[in-house]
Write a structure and sequence with these properties.
heterotrimer, A mainly alpha (602), B alpha/beta (253), C alpha/beta (275), A: 602 residues, mainly alpha, two-stranded antiparallel ribbon, 75% helix, 1% strand, globular, C: 275 residues, alpha/beta, nine-stranded mixed sheet, two-stranded parallel sheet, 10 helices, 39% helix, 23% strand
Chain lengths: 602, 253, 275
C-alpha cells in the first residue's frame, strides 16, 4: 500500500496558519473601512462647518441664484449650474469617444496601430491635469479665439480640455472589462459566425455591463470634481451661462477662489455648503448608477435590443467602425498636438540651468547649496510626496480591495464598495479643505504646533487615491474564474495562503493597473497641496512636517504669475519635467509588473 | 455480495446556496475503495453534492448545510461538519479535481510542490520526491520527466488534467472527488483519464460526477441519480445493472 | 583737481559705509538658525523672494519659505499662526485686528491701475466710464472711443487686496457684473488681458510691462511716482503682518525688508519703497 508521509502537518503549524489567516482577514477589513471612516469624517466636517449657516439663519441666502458678496448675497446657484453643465458636457463628449476608442482597440486582428492607440491612452493617464490646463491656456484658447472671435476663457475651452482629461479614465476602466470578456468569448463568437465587430457589439459590450457602468461613474465624477481645468480655463464668472462661449464658475473653482476669506463670514461658510453639495451630488450619482441586483447586473433589454439592431445592419456597422476610427484619430491628434506644442516650447530651454539655476550640480543635489531660480527643489518635493503618499495608500488600498472581494459579503461589502466609489468622487479641493481644517482643529485643541506640510499633504493625497487601488484590486480578484478561487481551499489552503499563492498573483496585472493610476494621480495633484502645505519658494524639504515645493504647483503658479519670457519658459520646462516624472513613475510600475509575473512563474 | 464498508455516510443532508435549496433529504452511503458515479440532469445538484464531501460549499455566499455527514476513517468515525477534523486535513484526505484543468502559471514541478510546501510544510526535497511519485501515479512522469521546469500551460489538455490529478494525489488523499473530469477533453485524452482512474479505483475511493453513460458503464461500481433537489436512486453494482440504469434514466428524462 | 580728489574720497567713504551697513544688517542673520514662513499677497512675492535669497546666501541654516495665495491667505494664515509673516495688499480691517491681534508693517507704495490690451485704441478713461464698464452698463468698446467689439471684463478673486482697493477707491463700491471673468493673481490678470484684444482688467502698477497698456485715468498717468505724490488716487501700501509683536528671526527679517538695504529690491520689483 502507499506510504503516508506526515510532512509536519501538525497542530502548531496549523495554528500558525490559522493565525495568519485571521490576522490577514482582520487587517484587510480594517483597511477597507479606512475609506468608510474617511468619508464619514469628511461628511461630518463639512456638515459641522456649514452649521453656522443654519444656526445664523443664512442658509436660504446660500441657496439663491446670485453671488455678489459686495451686496451681501451669497447664493451658490450659479456655481451649481456651472459644475453640472461643465461636467455633463465634458462627459457627453468623452464617453462616446471612450467607447469608440475601446471598440477600435479591440477591433479585428490587433495589429500595431491598435496596440499603439491603447499605449497612447495609457500614456495619457500619466499626463498631469495642470499640464493639460497649461497647454490649453497657451494653445487651445488662442485657437478658439481665432476661430470664434477672441473672447478669452470660456466654457467651451474647459469642456474640450476636460473631455480629453477624463477620456483615459473611461477607456481604462472600460477596456479592462471588455478585454477580459473578449478573451473569454472570442472563440465562441467566431464559432457563431460573428464578424469581430458583431462580436464586440453583441457579446463583449453586453458582457461588460459592469465595466460600462463603472467607467461612466468614474469618468463623470472625475469631470465633476476637477478644480484646475475650470479654474484655469472657464473664466470663473459667477453667472448662469447662455452659450458655450460664456464664462462659468464651478463649485470646485469657487472653493479655490473663496477659501482665503475670513473664516467667520457667510462667504466662508458657503464654501462648506458648496463642498456638501458636491459631495451629495457625487454620492447621488454613485447610488443611482449602482446596479439594482447583485454586483454586476446584466445590460437592460432596450440596450441589448439597440445593439442587436445595430449589429444586424451593415450600414450601422460601417458607421460604428467609422466612429471607432474617428475616436482613435481624435485622441491621437489631441495628444500629438499637446506633446508637439509642449516639446517645441520647452526643449529649447531644457538644460541644467533650468533645474539648478546658477548653483553647481553636485552641491545642489546633496543639499549643501540652495538652488535659486531652478526646478530642483520642486522635483524633490514632488518625489517625496509621491513616495510618502504611495507608501500609505497602496498597502491599505490592496488590503481593502482584498477585504471587499474575499472577506466581506452582503451589507458590509456593499457599504465598502459604495464608500470607495464615493471617496473617488470627492473633489480634491474638498479633500484639501478637509485637511486644512483638520490642522486648524488640531491647533485649537490637542496639538498647537501642528502645521500644514509634507506629511499632511501626503495623508490627504493617500486618502484621495485609495479608491483607485481598492477598486482595481477588488475588480481584478472578482473577475478571476470561479474554479481558481476554489482551487486553494480544495487543496487545504487557508484563505490567506490561497490569496498569497494563487489569487493575488493571478490578479497582479489588474492590481498594478490601479497602483499605476494612484501614483500618477498623486504626482499630478495640485488642488490638495494648494491648501495643505505647498509653497512657491522654499527649497528642499528638510523634514516630514516642512513646507515643500512641488512641480504641479510650480507649473500652475508660473502659468498664472509669469513676469517675463524667462518665467514662461521656466513654466514650459517645469511642465515637461513634471510630465517626464509621471511617465517615469509609470514605466517603473510596468517594470515591477513584469518582475512580478516572472517571480510567480518559477 | 461482499459487505461494503462505507467511506462516507450522508443522512438527511440538505444544502442551501444563496437562498436556493439545492439538495434536500439526501440519504447516501459511499462505499470505500470503489467508484461511485453521481448523475442526473443539469442543475440537479450533482456538483453541490460532491462539494458536501469536502465542505467546499462553504466558499460560496449564503451556504447552509443541514443533516448528518459521517466520514469513516481508520481511526474512527468523524463528523466533518462538527469540527471533528480540521478543514485543511479534511481537504487533504478528500481531494478534488475540477472540470477544467486549472494549472497554475508556474512550472510543472512547481504546480505540485507549491501546495506541498505551503499547506503541508514539506521541505523542498520532500516536496520534489512527492511530486515525482504523484506524477508516476498519474502516468504523466514519462512524458514530462525532461521538462519539469517548463510552464505547465504548454501541456496538452489531457496532460494538464493529469497534472491536476497528480497535484491532488501528491497530498495523499483517501478520497478523490472528480467533477466531470473528462468533459473538457478530447476522446483520446478522455480515454487516458478513464484508464488512469480505473487503475486508481482500488486504492482510492472515487466519487465522480459525469454526464457520460458510457463512461459510467465502464468505470462505475455504483451509480447515484439525483432528481430535482433530492429524490435519488441508489443503484447497486454496476455492470449487470447497466441496462436497468439506462432504462430508468431514459424514463427519468 | 583737489576738489575732485575730495569728492572721490567722500564717495569712497560713503560707498564703504553703505557696504558696511549692508553687510552689518545681513551679518545679523549669520550664526542664527531657524525658519520663517511667509504667505499672502501676490504682489509682494518678488520682494520676499529676493530678500530671502540674500539672507539664505549669507546663512544657509536659515530656511525661508514663500507662498502666495492673495491678501486673504495672508490674513488667515498669519492670524491662525500657520505662517510667521502674512502679506497683505491693503490695510487690515478693525475686525481682523481685533480677531487675530495682527500687527502691520508697511514697506512699499503701489498703485492699482486699469489695464487694456496694447492693441486697444482707447488711450484714456474717466472714473465714471470705468465704473459703468465694470457694472456692465457699457458693453462695447465703441462707446468709449474704441473699436466695435464687445468688452470682456476681468476681475480678481474675493480674497484679493488689489480687488478691494480697486473696488473701494475707483469703483466707489459699485457693482461688478456677474459675467466678469475671475482670475486669481496679478500675474494671471496680466496674462488674461494681454491675450484678449477686447479685455479690460486691473492690477498692481508694479506688474505693468509691454504686454499690457495702462490708460490714463481722468487724465492722470498711472505711475508709481504719481501714486506716491497723490496725483493718482488709486493707491495702497504693501504690508507685512505678524500675530502680535514679531520676535527673533521674524523681527530681523521685517527690519531688513523695511530698512535701507532693501530699497533696491523694492524699486526693481516696480514699487516705491517707503521712507
Amino acid at each position: 500500500m502507499r506510504q503516508t508521509r506526515p510532512c509536519r502537518q501538525n497542530s502548531t503549524r496549523f495554528c500558525r496558519q490559522l493565525f495568519f489567516d485571521r490576522a490577514a482577514r482582520t487587517l484587510s477589513c480594517g483597511a477597507g473601512f479606512v475609506s468608510l471612516a474617511t468619508l464619514a469624517a469628511i461628511f461630518a466636517f463639512l456638515a459641522l462647518l456649514s452649521l453656522p449657516l443654519f444656526t445664523q439663519g443664512q442658509w436660504d441666502s446660500v441657496l439663491q441664484a446670485v453671488w455678489r458678496p459686495f451686496e451681501g448675497r451669497y447664493g451658490i446657484g450659479p456655481m451649481v449650474a456651472g459644475s453640472l453643465i461643465l461636467s455633463c458636457s465634458a462627459f457627453a463628449l468623452a464617453y462616446p469617444l471612450g467607447v469608440g476608442v475601446c471598440l477600435f482597440v479591440l477591433g479585428p486582428g490587433g495589429g500595431p496601430l491598435r496596440r499603439a492607440t491603447m499605449g497612447v491612452v495609457t500614456f495619457m493617464t500619466a499626463i498631469p491635469t495642470v499640464v493639460y490646463g497649461f497647454v490649453s491656456v497657451f494653445l487651445l484658447v488662442p485657437l478658439l479665439g481665432r476661430a470664434f472671435g477672441g473672447r478669452g476663457p470660456s466654457l467651451l475651452a474647459a469642456v474640450l480640455t476636460l473631455a480629453v482629461l477624463v477620456l483615459p479614465t473611461i477607456v481604462l476602466f472600460l477596456h479592462g472589462s471588455m478585454r477580459e470578456t473578449e478573451e473569454r468569448t472570442r472563440l465562441t463568437s467566431a464559432a457563431l459566425g460573428f464578424t469581430p465587430l458583431q462580436a464586440l457589439l453583441l457579446v463583449v459590450l453586453p458582457g461588460s455591463a459592469a465595466g460600462l457602468r463603472t467607467a461612466a461613474v468614474m469618468g463623470w465624477c472625475r469631470a465633476l470634481s476637477d478644480t484646475l481645468i475650470p479654474l484655469m480655463l472657464a473664466g470663473n464668472a459667477p453667472q448662469f451661462p447662455d452659450s458655450l462661449f460664456d464664462s462659468v464658475r464651478t463649485l470646485t473653482a469657487h472653493i479655490a477662489l473663496v477659501v482665503a476669506m475670513d473664516n467667520s463670514s457667510p462667504a466662508f461658510h458657503s464654501l462648506f455648503a458648496c463642498g456638501l453639495t458636491l459631495f451629495g451630488v457625487s454620492l447621488g450619482a454613485q447610488a443611482a448608477l449602482r446596479p439594482r441586483s447583485g454586483t454586476s447586473g446584466p445590460m437592460g433589454d432596450r440596450a441589448l435590443g439597440l445593439l442587436s439592431f445595430m449589429a444586424a445592419r451593415p450600414a450601422c456597422r460601417a458607421l460604428i467602425s467609422a466612429w471607432a476610427v474617428l475616436s482613435a484619430a481624435a485622441v491621437l491628434a489631441s495628444v500629438g498636438a499637446l506633446l508637439a506644442f509642449l516639446l517645441t516650447r520647452s526643449l529649447p530651454v531644457l538644460d541644467l540651468r533650468l533645474f539648478f539655476g546658477d548653483t553647481p550640480v553636485l552641491p545642489a543635489l546633496l543639499g549643501r547649496q540652495p538652488v535659486w531660480d531652478g526646478l530642483f527643489a520642486a522635483c524633490a518635493g514632488t518625489l517625496a510626496l509621491v513616495i510618502l503618499a504611495s507608501l500609505m495608500a497602496i498597502p491599505v488600498g490592496v488590503a481593502g480591495g482584498v477585504a471587499l472581494s474575499q472577506y466581506l459579503k452582503g451589507t458590509p461589502a456593499a457599504a465598502l464598495r459604495f464608500s470607495a466609489n464615493a471617496l473617488a468622487g470627492v473633489p480634491s479641493i474638498v479633500m484639501g479643505l478637509f485637511g486644512f481644517s483638520v490642522i486648524i482643529l488640531l491647533r485649537h485643541t490637542v496639538a498647537p504646533e501642528a502645521n500644514t506640510g509634507l506629511f499632511l499633504s501626503a495623508v490627504c493625497i493617500a486618502l484621495l487615491v485609495l479608491p483607485y487601488t481598492i477598486n482595481a484590486t477588488a475588480q481584478s480578484l472578482d473577475t478571476l474564474p470561479g474554479e481558481l478561487r476554489l482551487l486553494g481551499p480544495s487543496l487545504g489552503m487557508t484563505s490567506w495562503q490561497s490569496l498569497r499563492r494563487i489569487l493575488l498573483p493571478a490578479a497582479g496585472r489588474g492590481i498594478l493597473g490601479g497602483v499605476v493610476l494612484s501614483m500618477g494621480r498623486a504626482a499630478e495633484d495640485t488642488a490638495v497641496i494648494l491648501l495643505t502645505g505647498v509653497v512657491a519658494h522654499g527649497g528642499l524639504p528638510r523634514g516630514l512636517f516642512d513646507k515643500f515645493e512641488a512641480l504641479p504647483f510650480t507649473v500652475y503658479y508660473l502659468a498664472a504669475q509669469y513676469q517675463s519670457a524667462h518665467d514662461l519658459d521656466k513654466g514650459f520646462g517645469a511642465a515637461l519635467a513634471l510630465l517626464a516624472l509621471t511617465v517615469l513613475l509609470f514605466r517603473i510600475a510596468r517594470t515591477l509588473q513584469g518582475r512580478m509575473e516572472r517571480e510567480w512563474k518559477h | 455480495m461482499e459487505t461494503l464498508t462505507p467511506h462516507f455516510t450522508l443522512r438527511g443532508v440538505g444544502v442551501t446556496l444563496n437562498g436556493r435549496r439545492i439538495l434536500e433529504g439526501v440519504d447516501l452511503d459511499i462505499p470505500k475503495g470503489r467508484a461511485t458515479f453521481v448523475m442526473g440532469r443539469s442543475g440537479a445538484g450533482k456538483t453541490t453534492l460532491l462539494r458536501v464531501l469536502n465542505r467546499l460549499n462553504e466558499c460560496f455566499p449564503g451556504s447552509e448545510t443541514s443533516g448528518e455527514v459521517l466520514l469513516h476513517l481508520d481511526r474512527g468515525v468523524v463528523r466533518p461538519y462538527s469540527g471533528d477534523i480540521a478543514l485543511p486535513e479534511l481537504r487533504r484526505l478528500v481531494g478534488m479535481v475540477f472540470q477544467h484543468p486549472n494549472v497554475l502559471p508556474m512550472s510543472i514541478a512547481a504546480n505540485i510542490t507549491m501546495p506541498l510546501t505551503t499547506v503541508r510544510g514539506c521541505g523542498r526535497d520532500e516536496a520534489m520526491e512527492g511530486a515525482r511519485l504523484a506524477l508516476r501515479e498519474a502516468q504523466l512522469w514519462e512524458e514530462v520527466r525532461d521538462r519539469l521546469d517548463a510552464d505547465a500551460r504548454t501541456l496538452s489538455g489531457g496532460q494538464q488534467q493529469r497534472l491536476c490529478l497528480a497535484r491532488t494525489l501528491a497530498m495523499k488523499p483517501d478520497v478523490l472527488l472528480l467533477d466531470e473530469p473528462t468533459s473538457s477533453l478530447d476522446v483520446m485524452a478522455a480515454r487516458g483519464i478513464e484508464e488512469l482512474l480505473a487503475g486508481l479505483k482500488g486504492r482510492y475511493t472515487l466519487v465522480v460526477v459525469s454526464h457520460g453513460w458510457e463512461f459510467a458503464a465502464r468505470l462505475a461500481d455504483d451509480i447515484v441519480i439525483l432528481r430535482d433537489a433530492g429524490v435519488h436512486r441508489h443503484s447497486g453494482d454496476g455492470g449487470a445493472d447497466r441496462d436497468a440504469c439506462a432504462e430508468s434514466f431514459e424514463r427519468m428524462l | 583737481m583737489k576738489r575732485s580728489m575730495h569728492f572721490a574720497v567722500l564717495a569712497a567713504l560713503f560707498l564703504f559705509t553703505c557696504t558696511a551697513a549692508r553687510a552689518d544688517m545681513l551679518q545679523q542673520f549669520a550664526g542664527r538658525k531657524g525658519k520663517i514662513d511667509i504667505a499672502g499677497g501676490t504682489a509682494h512675492i518678488p520682494v520676499m523672494n529676493e530678500a530671502a535669497k540674500r539672507i539664505m546666501t549669507v546663512n544657509p541654516d536659515i530656511r525661508i519659505t514663500v507662498e502666495g495665495g492673495g491678501t486673504g491667505v495672508g490674513v488667515q494664515k498669519a492670524g491662525e499662526g500657520l505662517v510667521d509673516i502674512g502679506n497683505t495688499g491693503r490695510a487690515l480691517s478693525e475686525e481682523e485686528v481685533a480677531k487675530y491681534g495682527l500687527v502691520s508693517f508697511p514697506f512699499a507704495v503701489d498703485g492699482v491701475t486699469v489695464v487694456l490690451n496694447p492693441a486697444n485704441a482707447v488711450k484714456g478713461l474717466t472714473s465714471a466710464q470705468v465704473q459703468d464698464i465694470f457694472a456692465g452698463k457699457i458693453t462695447n468698446w465703441k462707446d468709449v472711443g474704441g473699436a466695435d467689439a464687445a468688452i470682456t471684463l476681468y476681475t480678481r478673486d474675493e480674497a484679493s487686496g488689489t480687488r478691494e482697493v480697486f473696488w473701494e477707491k475707483l469703483l466707489k463700491k459699485g457693482a461688478v457684473a456677474d459675467r466678469a471673468n475671475v482670475v486669481a493673481s496679478n500675474g494671471a490678470m496680466k496674462v488674461a488681458v494681454s491675450q484678449d484684444a477686447s479685455g479690460i482688467g486691473y492690477m498692481s502698477i508694479g506688474f505693468v510691462d509691454a504686454t499690457v497698456k495702462a490708460p490714463l485715468l481722468d487724465g492722470v498717468e498711472p505711475s508709481q511716482a504719481n501714486a506716491t505724490s497723490g496725483a493718482y488716487k488709486v493707491a495702497r501700501k504693501l504690508f507685512m503682518n505678524t500675530k502680535g509683536e514679531p520676535q527673533g528671526l521674524t523681527k530681523l527679517f521685517i527690519d531688513y525688508v523695511t530698512g535701507p538695504e532693501c530699497t533696491d529690491i523694492i524699486s526693481k520689483a516696480g514699487y516705491i519703497p517707503l521712507k
